[in-house]
Amino acid sequence: MTPVLAAELVKLRTVRVTYALPAVALTLGVALTLAIVLTGEPAELSSEVGGRLTLSGGGNMAGIMALLLGIITSGGDYRHGTILPTLFITPDRGRVALATVLANATVGGLMGAVAVVTSGAVGLALMASRDLTVGLTGAELAGIAAGGVAFPALSAAFGSALGTLVRSQVAGLSIALMALFVVEPVLTELVDGYQRYSLTGVRVALVGGGAEAAGAADGGLPPAWLAALLWTGYTVALVTVAITVTRRRDV
What we know:
Blueprint: H1 2-13, H2 17-39, H3 42-45, H4 48-55, H5 57-79, H6 83-89, H7 93-129, H8 138-166, H9 169-190, H10 199-206, H11 224-248
Helix pairs in contact: 1-7, 2-5, 2-7, 5-7, 5-8, 5-9, 7-8, 7-11, 8-9, 8-11, 10-11
């Protein structure tokens, strides 16, 4: 597995989107943090909700971009035929699919780490310049940081599995965006309590955001540890399906 994983990491290094999407995530995360701190009321920013909203933006943006990264790179392997040389050297399709998922997860985790550190530093510095303190404990801050790394790593793996399964960048991106921005909002309006355990609710809980950010202010969000288990479960399930299907069908 190690040589195959190393090869997949090298492949990711040669793709421009591997650098473009982290840059977008970092820019959006910092911009969101700036907007929140510069326009927020002092009392709100100093509260627990305000602190979570301020510091969770970086990991959240990194996770969304990591999802797109996984879909684009894995779907692109089949779209452009770059999977063929890999399978020629390593005929085990399931092994290659797993290595691709792990490589994307590694890059996603790095995206999250950079985004969390950068946006967090900007947010804390701006709050200090306004003589504001963060209404969070050290353990809560550590949880936000850990979630901000875990969510992009899992999202990249999820996206990679989806791209491998549908073998199309356009189809994968369409499915992901429709699910997040069309299907989930509709289900939230129609089904009471759905948002708490939806993809949106779980990702917001995982990165340490508040219930308001997920549109689940009334029902709340699952605890971070449960959100981590749920998102991991969703990812493992999709990866398992992708590997199983990949082993059984022709390239």
